[in-house]
């Protein structure tokens, strides 16, 4: 057996494997001997088929299978022993038809190699780390929404501004027959709103889907249509009003506080506001953290320069998909996935050079325990024992999909903490509305 690597350039190489008869003949002979014992061939008793007939019938298929096993095993061992950091998988070179009557066999595999590069986490340009403040307007809005949600409905005979309207949207040609309930606040434009205001229960309104609601999502929800069908939809339809209600806000009293947070958790409007600020800070923190992680990722991809074995990767994509790709399709797929691949390599580089980022089994177990306790608490199981938690953790750790999901979550948390400590950041405090406008150009 002879196996070696020949560099084409810094990012491409060829691995050649030469297999001699001594490397495989014992395995092949053993398999053929077993076949002889178990083969049923007319005219011969089981186990007494001539070896020459067994060889003629089975030798080539057995040889092919054993050579493939040896080739794959030795290729994997070589990659591991040489500590080759490959991108994609080895691609066998087309060597034409193989003469399986030969004693020696020669195979070549193309490989794409991960580049060597350094990552400057700190960077030259500071990245904005947003901090959303829950101002009085935000808290007032949240209180109003909660009071409305827990308020009571008072039936009305006709529609007034701010009422909730229930009815049926219909368009026979489009097969629309959808029950819907919505506030008049969701209706877009004065002309549309004018059709609703003053309309009595039992009335049927003539409407058009174009610019009917403030959000396309509402049109999709209320008409019960798929997203792709709603986009640009402009059809006439009717809406029969079956019910009108005024939603009277709940009073800020102990009954209201207990209904939302449990008995005696909140005892005053001041405590309610403080609780909402705390909850908002957690929720906003998750959004700003995700934005920070996205921005740092983009900056690292842009600022960390290295080449990739692009031609090899395109050929690998074309060869490895479930469906065969054309060269053009493989190129398009490579271009779609290139940024993701670059960040995977950058993240791997950072993790390799910072021991605190490397996931350990015990870290994942402890992370799972914390997550399970939080979930149990949310569902009212406040005093779960360590034994109960560990039983759930054991079930999770035996599920590969769950382990993969939690590993990704924990790795993201570790990376975010690392970036906050090491990247060049500038803090900016603003309201939620300002954040959405600035961060997402909304």
Q: Low-confidence runs (pLDDT<50, min 5 residues)?
A: none
Mean pLDDT: 91
Please tally the β strands and state the result: 11
Structurally, how many domains make up the residues?
Answer: 3
Range of strand content: 15-25%
Tell me the major beta sheet: 5 strands, antiparallel
Please identify the structural class as seen in this structure. alpha+beta
Percent of residues in helices: 40-55%
- Count of helical stretches: 14
Helix-strand topology string: EEHHEEEHEEEHEHHEHHHHHHHEH
Supply Rg.
Answer: 33 Å
Distance between the termini: 63 Å
Shape: elongated
Describe it.
The protein has 442 residues and is α+β, with helices and mostly antiparallel strands. It has 3 domains: 2-113, Trigger factor ribosome-binding domain (Alpha-Beta Plaits), CATH 3.30.70.1050; 152-248, Chitinase A, domain 3 (Roll), CATH 3.10.50; 267-440, no CATH class. It is 51% helix and 19% strand. The protein is built from 14 helices and 11 strands. Strands 6, 7, 8, 9 and 10 form a 5-stranded antiparallel β-sheet that branches. A 4-stranded antiparallel β-sheet has the order 1-2-4-3, with helices on both faces. Strands 5-11 form a two-stranded parallel sheet. Helix 1 packs across helix 2, helix 9 packs across helix 10 and helix 11 (361-378) crosses helix 12 (386-397). The longest helix is centred in the middle third of the chain and has 35 residues, at 269-303. The two termini are 63 Å apart.
Keywords:
single chain, about 450 residues, alpha+beta, Alpha-Beta Plaits, Chitinase A, domain 3, 3 domains, 4-stranded antiparallel sheet, 14 helices, elongated
